[in-house]
Queue: 2 jobs
Job 1
Amino acid sequence: MNSLGITLAIVGAVCAALFAGIGSARAVGLVGEAAAGVVSVDPSKFSKVLILQLLPGTQGLYGLLTAILMLSRVGVIGGGAVELTTAQGLMFLAASLPIAIVGYFSAIAQGRAAVAGVGITAKAPEHNGKGIIMAAMVETYAILALLVSILLIYNIAI
Amino acid sequence: MSETTKYASAVAAVKAMENTLLNRSDMEQLINAASKAETEALLSSKKGTFETNAETVWNMIRDYAPDCRETEILLYKNDFHNLKAALKASVSGRTAEKYYIRPTNLDLDKLSEDLGSKNYDALPEHIRATASEAYDILVKTSDGQLTDSFIDAAALAAMQKSAKSFGGEFMRKYAELTTVCADIKTAFRCSKMNKQKNFFETAVCGSESLDKDSLIKAALGGTESLLGFLETAGFGEAAKLLGISGAQFEKWCDDIIMELAETARMRSFGPEPLEAYFIAAEAEQKNLRIISVCKEFGADRETITERMRKLYV
């Protein structure tokens, strides 16, 4: 049995969950710092800054989703792991890269945009929505990366 | 978290507090108030219990960013002023308490103690050498003005040195602009008073934008020569205003520092927005003092408006 193929697929699933998750954790933490700064001065803005803090958390969820789909596709979840060639394993590993890499960097970038949005909320709470939209724009690229990863996972012939 | 995302919490808190600074419309109302009492009542209704005096703002900045060393440079002018006060008090055997300015980086009790015992090595590094030299100048010459000028120039040099050593771009520019303004003012005054070259050498600090030797040479030739030099050195507006009145030049100095502060206002990270807020709070206090004094002496609206410093918000 060629165990390298399935190992590479599992490494792919780990990469997707790991890097997107790390990116989200760093970004949510960063926005949380900024949000705490605002709330320490004006606690009434808590709910407004909380939305901004949640935004860069989605990449971690996309990474988790990709990992689950990949593990399910190769049978690690649900029993009966399929036998993969090294080439197929590499394909699954490659399929994880869009969300792993784009997820990590887009989470950080979204976190920075969300911190700027926290600044808008602090100074002009009535324009909070604009800060949310600006930060949400970064999400587009994480969604595109997720889409590519999912398309690849379901179109690799096994 | 990396350097580029430092002080996110402090900056966000400062942005929330910027709302408590007085804006143009608030200032207009204060200027239009009929009397000093009315100004004070209006101010109290606008500010409520929230204080934006320099000491409160400084303590807040230190609470949020206690590890931010470069913000200390903002207090060097107070530190060196306090050194002047403590030194004179030490020599004359009086107490300097009522002459101290706060906030300061110095432990003022320890400062008096160390100066009294001439234990200069125990002083903070940025004032150590200046304290020892200033003491020598004061006891040898008994010239308070020369000692003050020496300490003022040393404060500017210390600001520039510290800004280059551990400050960012914003702080380097702040130190540079502060030095330029102080040097022009000193050179102009000394030129009017026909001071000797050695006094200029002690009182002028010099900076990259305004060479010390060239400035002294021009100032020794008289005020016209100095103003002409400033125009060629890229400080035409300063020279023009200095030719009109000292008050207008002072306003120009404060305004260019505020313009620098405005460049930091849009940032979401780093120490610059904190420093800019401190500068803004100081400027607000200055504006309130101007309004208060003008109201007390019955100055008209135009006079007050002309003297008002640029606002941050």
Job 2
Amino acid sequence: MTEFRQTRQGYVDALIELATEIPELLVLDADVAKATKTADFQKKFPSRHINCGTAEQNELSVAAGLALEGFLPFATTFAMFATARAGDQLRNSIAYPKLNVKVAATHGGITTGGDGASHQACEDIAIARALPNMTVLVPGDYEEARRATLAAARHVGPVYLRFGRDTYPVVPALHGEFVIGRAKLLRNGGDVTLVSTGIMAGEALRAAEQLAAAGISARVLHYPTIKPFDAEPLLRAARQTRGLVTAEEHSIIGGLGEAAAAAILEAGLGTPLRRIGVRDVFGESGQAGDLLDKFGLRAANIAQAAQALLRPAAVPA
Amino acid sequence: MTALLAPTPTVDLARLRGKARAIRREILRMVHAGQSGHPGGSLGVADLVTALYYAVLRHDPQNPRWAQRDRFILSKGHCSPVIYAVLADCGYFPPGDLATFRRPGSHLQGHPCSAKTPGIEASTGTLGLGLSTACGMALGGMLRGGSHYYYALCGDGEQQEGQIWEAAMFANKYHLSNLIAFTDRNRLQTDGDTEDVMPLDPLPEKWRAFGWHSWEIDGHDFTQILAAVARAKREHDGRPTMIIANTTKGKGVSFMEGAAAWHSGPPSDAQLALALEELAHD
């Protein structure tokens, strides 16, 4: 029986772990403390939880000010607000002066669910990734989220951490050491490579099982760090396997798929690549699982893309 | 302790006036050398910034990260020439750097960046960020139990940004009485009179409604500026202060005073010479 847990809970559990060790750690929120789970931190450390109200622009600039004073602020809100509503502050208050602010964004991606397109950030990774100085972490389950948070706290410089709203399957393969900037080889294989970030790791592993049943050996590479991008294992896979499928709960524009495609082409390789992601459309209201089905973000979609890649017709003569 | 630029009990007003005139001359030379920049607003706040750096702030140019220093945040970042001129004169970096303003390779960016220029406390530029950053810094100072102050300088046009009022609520909630802010109330913004573009009056009433101390002064009268700071410190009752400083944009240069057109853009060679001549004496 698969266990389901929240990535945002992994984030806040890590903050509670860190609070004693790092007295400078402060948690900021913007009137969504129950939804982001920072209310759990607030219960234990009330004087170190700063609720900025529904004012995310101020929240991010206040976090910058606290970092300038030597504190370690974790500015927490929904991904939509962290990157879009407060995009200027993310850029000019935090990234440009390279301040030691951690921006923790929950409710990333389509699985935000019932709130619909207005709250389903599917471009946040693209925005954060385009900012110089910004490190971008997209963990795939509770434990990886916890470890990513611990790593972010010890990293000096701005970090964008992306978590989801829903409960997501626990993926034991993700639970090894978390090193910022290092991809994880989740499964070896020689025919095709599946490249995941965030919660798509579990779908990619299931896709590899489905492909194995069809006699196809799939490698699974997972990118909990989108930036800096660990190109080396990807390029090795591009040389050693016949094609790659990227999978992200994000727009196909500006995220993992484009980072991977650029790395492959700039290395002079022409390995075929397909991108699984939200295909340049807005989301809609629904249960998270139904939306993963509807937007084609399932293991079956990844496996189908891989099989299509391997068909001779997929590679023009 | 190295030589501190500490406020003196008796302030030499003639010295401040001389400093402000020298700062204004540097502002014009910088904008002329960079062939771009914002002379009008920079000239308008030269008296305020001079008063703060030479008669109010406790700071140490030899030790820009001294923990107990008073901090100054230029929320209206486009007036960077004034802060650069003051920081250079205080010794934060060589005065020769000023000629590199807005040039490739210079640390003197069009809008100030804390990662590049010694003495710049916070990166500002897009309007509204600076006051929020100052709030975060002031909260940090309070959490550490410091007795130093945080001074912020906002534009009046800048207060059309929603973020300013987010910061206003935040400073009230967290009782940031260590935050003393100024509004450069010159009544002009890029497209003209603030009351035509987007009315701001009555500003002191707005700030008081947000829980701040707020009153008006003449932003070119050193005695009033220093008295206002003293009053803000005296009223240390858990409320932040916003001093509305009535100023003249372009102050000190006859053809720039009160002219919205001098919000940005360099003077010609002839205009520079004329302006420097006007600023040569009281």
